[in-house]
């Protein structure tokens, strides 16, 4: 790889205000309870500036004699600082002498990425008991999606590299998607019963965002009808 190009590759996409005190995410890591959401936030933040490779090791440390070493070290130190800035004071004190972003990531993962079964149970329980009630459709959807996304992101990451030819993976994803939508529909008020019946008959089965759009339209129609009734009375 051309040396000048490689140096630019290491340094490219760092924010213009690349300060060691930069806070990449407002999600501060406090312990095992919020490790998964913190890790997800940091992954997105670092990936958006093409720097997650320093954390997962796909951009390895060059030999100290390499002309690329100083450029790599600048990026590594900057990212290491960003990571520590997102930690609680207690956790920050425990990692101050770790010298690479990759080692820091691994250390936190080994310590804090624990069995999330109790947490998953709590999320599932909250989702099962969540109902619209007096909430608007928009507020209910936001609350539901927040819980569901946390439930999904607190499950262990799995990467399948199998070359599936039987279609079972597609069926599994379709089933998971339907479960997602079913939970949302089950929490809606009874006044949407007819619409829910219509949605369940749609082929192909709609996405959650499409379902939400249909329910919002129905809510708007109901509100207009209520206003018209009030005017007529």
Molecular structure report:
This protein is mainly alpha-helical and 233 residues long. It contains eleven helices and no strands. Helix 1 runs parallel beside helix 4. Residues 1-8 have low confidence and may be disordered.
Structure at a glance:
The protein is mainly α and 233 residues long.
Task: Provide the fold topology.
Elements: H1 3-11, H2 35-48, H3 53-56, H4 69-85, H5 89-94, H6 101-112, H7 117-129, H8 137-153, H9 168-186, H10 193-200, H11 208-232
Essential attributes:
single chain, 233 residues, mainly alpha, elongated
- The residue-averaged pLDDT reads 83
Helical percent range?
A: 55-70%
Number of helices: 11
- Proportion of residues in extended strands: under 5%
Radius of gyration: 24 Å
The shape, in one word, is elongated
Low-confidence stretches: 1-8
Element-level helix/strand string: HHHHHHHHHHH
**How many strands in all?**
0
Oligomer: single chain
SS-based class: mainly alpha
What does the main sheet amount to?
Answer: none
Distance between the termini: 78 Å
